[in-house]
Amino acid sequence: MRYEDFRREYLAGGLSREMLDDCPIRQFELWLEQTVGSELQDPTAMVLATIDESGLPWQRIVLMKGVSTAGFVFYTNFGSNKARDIAVNPQVSLLFPWNVLDRQVIVGGRAEKMSVAESARYFFSRPRESQLAAWASEQSRPISRRAVLEAQVQKMRDKFGRGEIPMPDFWGGYRVVPERIEFWQGGAHRLHDRFRYTRESDKGWRIEQLQP
Prior knowledge:
Blueprint: H1 24-37, E1 45-51, E2 57-63, E3 66-68, E4 71-77, H2 81-88, E5 91-98, E6 103-113, H3 116-123, H4 128-136, H5 146-160, E7 171-185, E8 193-199, E9 205-210
Antiparallel strand pairs: 1-2, 1-5, 3-4, 4-7, 5-6, 6-7, 7-8, 8-9
Helix pairs in contact: 4-5
Pfam families: PNP_phzG_C, PNPOx_N
Function: Catalyzes the oxidation of either pyridoxine 5'-phosphate (PNP) or pyridoxamine 5'-phosphate (PMP) into pyridoxal 5'-phosphate (PLP).
Binding site for FMN: 60-65, 75-76, 82, 104, 139-140, 184, 194
């Protein structure tokens, strides 16, 4: 196959400064609402990029579980690779790949652990099987075969029975506090529209248009 021949025009729509909200979070929420309305599967899926202790980058898809002016929220096991990377270098990047709308949003910022109370509110809202999985999985650690993992889940079922499942102390949330947010809208003939918001301390956000 000639992969260099795979191409198409991006004609879903343009983006101008006049169309943008002065607050990138409000602009993100508007785009997210439109993405949900497009019936794109997993509209809250985002690529999380981290740097490990050797300086090597790694990416994975996680689900965003909340957004506000404070930042973007996700949850994980604190022993996972992503959490271990964040402990070494909290600077991370997020990418929302909304290809159906010829859009993407890139976020750069600092990942900070959320409070136990905030994490608990989400944990207790999860389906019971997801709560059990949080206890059973030593996330990112090697395993010999799937049957071992399934046995670990059953062990947790037996342990907690029909009672309430407590939140593990090795599990919780992170909030990515944004310093830069870029909105990308595909354009015809590769003349894409790109706008970058950069935080300016207490002065709000600076908005720049970037060349494609």
